User: Which sequence fits this backbone?
């Protein structure tokens, strides 16, 4: 992310590593996945159609409903593409813990297990393949449902979980509310040196910055409340400046 990492006062955020707990998977997270439980050395993502669920509990219910259903055509395509991409690599570089994928009676759902050191690569690949097919990505370890419905393509960097290719109003609120130490920041970048970012200072206090190009267009403000921050970020993302322009911004001198 050349903008925030090069010029933003929060630039140090983007270079920090992400750590995930091996004991972080919630139980239960659906009979479909439970039936194919893998050792906890694997990190699981689940693909499911956009719009079928909006909470982890609804995801769990939907996964259960798909158990025993014939594999959907979209799942067959996704499984074949992921398996082929995996087979192109040397075995030491494989990003799937199980191959080939697919062929199970899981309806419109596809579980994608991977080694922990491949999480970032796999997540990026899943968005590349799933989003054009109107599929959401569910992370059961974090209990995060990342649904493309209503998305705006931007680069989102979450301090605790890495990079994502789009933002929605629901994700903005969810992510800002969940920001926590040691890296409580969120960056949304539209173009190089054009971004908005926030850092959680306390439960209710946030620093927000936005930059519209050069260093003379870099501003900062303090905002109270996670939802106010999330709404501000979403407004900026969809190019609605009404609330953005109401804040008492100060030019940031670096």
Assistant:
């Amino acid at each position: 992310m050349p903008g925030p990492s090069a010029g933003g006062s929060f630039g140090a955020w983007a270079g920090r590593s992400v750590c995930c707990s091996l004991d972080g998977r919630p139980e239960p997270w659906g009979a479909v996945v439970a039936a194919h439980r893998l050792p906890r050395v694997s990190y699981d993502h689940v693909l499911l159609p956009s719009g079928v669920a909006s909470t982890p509990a609804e995801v769990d219910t939907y996964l259960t409903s798909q158990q025993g259903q014939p594999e959907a055509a979209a799942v067959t395509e996704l499984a074949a593409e992921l398996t082929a991409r995996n087979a192109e690599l040397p075995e030491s570089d494989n990003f799937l813990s199980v191959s080939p994928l697919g062929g199970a009676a899981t309806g419109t759902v596809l579980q994608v297990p991977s080694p922990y050191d491949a999480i970032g690569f796999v997540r990026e690949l899943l968005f590349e393949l799933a989003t054009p097919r109107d599929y959401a990505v569910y992370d059961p370890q974090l209990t995060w449902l990342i649904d493309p419905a209503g998305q705006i393509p931007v680069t989102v960097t979450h301090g605790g979980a890495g990079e994502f290719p789009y933002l929605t109003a629901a994700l903005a609120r969810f992510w800002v509310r969940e920001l926590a130490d040691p890296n409580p920041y969120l960056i949304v970048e539209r173009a190089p040196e054009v971004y908005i970012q926030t850092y959680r200072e306390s439960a209710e206090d946030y620093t927000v910055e936005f930059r519209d190009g050069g260093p003379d267009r870099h501003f900062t403000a303090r905002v109270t409340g996670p939802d106010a921050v999330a709404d501000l970020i979403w407004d900026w993302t969809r190019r609605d400046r009404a609330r953005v322009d109401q804040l008492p911004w100060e030019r940031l001198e670096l």
About this structure: The chain has a mean pLDDT of 87. Residues 104 and 129 are 20 Å apart (CA to CA). Residues 73-87 form the longest helix (15 residues).
